[in-house]
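Help!! Second protein's tokens look totally different from the first
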Amino acid sequence: MAELAEALHLEVATPLGRALSVEVRSVQAPSVSGEFGVLSGHLPLLASLKSGILHYVIDGREHRAAIGPGYAEVSPETMRILTDQFATPSQIDVKAVRQELATTEATLRGLSKDQEADPEKLEQLDRAIAWCHARLDVAQERV
């Protein structure tokens, strides 16, 4: 069996450009089928991601970031994530996110009472709420 290299290159790309490009020991990401982990030497994999927390280890220290829905492509040397949303703890304004969450939940409650509510609008609100929760969860490490 071939010896595995210790480093895995992690890249996160958003519509605004490359949000993260680092060498890591391991990565955990939230897929639509559950959380999964990746080490260097991992078999090729494509996964759909949901909003949640991206965990990655650099020099023995765990880092966390909030990511939105997207896709992950894994090869033995690299993990690439394509997502519309990415935030590190220092980029998160907890007060603003809590306000956004309250507003979005109120909108969802209003639409939920409407029996003819647009399913696409309900889905957008559910995703917005999940993104708020991901950011708040990540921010808890610095609050």
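Here's the second one for comparison:
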Amino acid sequence: MSNTFNVAVIGSGYWGPNLIRNFYQLPKVELSYICDLSNERLSHMASLYPDIAQTKDYKDILQDTNVDAVCIATPVSTHFKLAWEALEADKHVLLEKPMTATGEEARKLTELAEQKGKVLMVGHTFEYTAPINKLKEIIDSGELGKILYINMSWLNLGVFREDVNVVWDLAPHNISLLNMLLKEEPRTIKAIGSAHYHEGKEDVAFLNVSYPDNLIAHIHLSWIDPAKTRKLTVVGDKKMAIFDDLNDTEPIKIFDKSIIKQPYYESYGEFKLLYNWGDVYSPKIENTEPLKVQCSHFIDCIEKGKTPQSDGVSGMRVVEALEAAERSLKNNSEWVQL
């Protein structure tokens, strides 16, 4: 196989330009095509990358045998069709999140990629951030002890989406991170939400997600909050940790705080809880653009035949969880089992 990989990007709207920029800058990548239905977007991309072919027809890409891989950054409703045809054309595929509109579609893509021997990867970008990987390292080391619960807040004022609600827009980040950090899959999900500006499209939601061993995660999602927030709190029985994506200098803080049960007592009335208050520290973390790491990982998996961190199976598990949350939203916030 050649040391250079020809990559095409389908979709140059909101997120596509970031993918185009990163693939364009990778030394092992030849960015072959930029595809979009909008003449205006293609003209803008042509002004930035005049040496890259522009097309409105994605089939031009699929029919080009020189293209090794396709990155799809289009509305989720189009993901299955585009990814299916790309895999059938023997292309490796990087799909933006959420992977597909249904778990069944995700399963079919995963099976086809395996049959074709192609890399299928989902763009869960937060899994490639240095702070999150440091947090995973800390959790895996046992420093925090047994994880008791996790709280997550993903809030902002906008951007409103017309194709999906806030759960499908933001929760893929949260579910993928939970599954990654805990190395488990959720058992049940309960969701409550409301739509204030577009009928049928919830713009604020609260999710409760249960995992094995009595662990529960709470997720607050909003497009109508006054302050942008990307925060994750992990509470262990030994220590606690906070990830703050908007804190550039100290994105991870470890708190030496815990509750200690008094070992000896003669009656329930004498039962006491002692509190451990220790130091707070922030581990040193290198500042690397997560999307660059993600795109590099995709190419590395193609070159070496590796399974991506955010592969098709993990992407499918996220979509299944989103479907469960959607069912809960539509059924009086009932617990839904996965």
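Reply: Different proteins will give different token patterns, so don't panic. The radius of gyration is 22 Å.
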